Amino acid sequence: MTAKVINHLKSKGFANIYTVPDWAENQRQTQIFVRRGTRHPGVELRKILGVGQIEVSAQGDLDADLTIRIGEDWK
Q1: Of 71, 73, 75, 74, nearest to 27 (Cα)?
Q2: pLDDT tens digits for 15-68?
């Protein structure tokens, strides 16, 4: 599923995409973690993905502006 998400994002113009190891448990709903201030980048990413619960949080990859935790709801 990760490869499908990466290909989808690349087709939408994203270039700086990398993966991190899976978390231990499965996720039912896709989560988008926004690390730097405003929710706006998360809202835009949710529009592109078509799914995603947005959280402004220190969770996710510390070097990334956005982290996506892919859930079972992603096509």
Answers
A1: 71
A2: 888 887 777 777 889 988 887 777 888 999 999 999 999 988 766 656 677 888
- Reported pTM: 0.79
Q: Residue 65: is it exposed, middle or buried by C-beta count within 10 angstroms (0-12/13-18/19+)? A: middle
Q: For residue 66, give the nearest of 74, 28, 49 by alpha carbon.
A: 49
> 9 with 17: CB under 8 angstroms?
yes
- φ, ψ for residue 55 (rounded to 5)? -135, 125
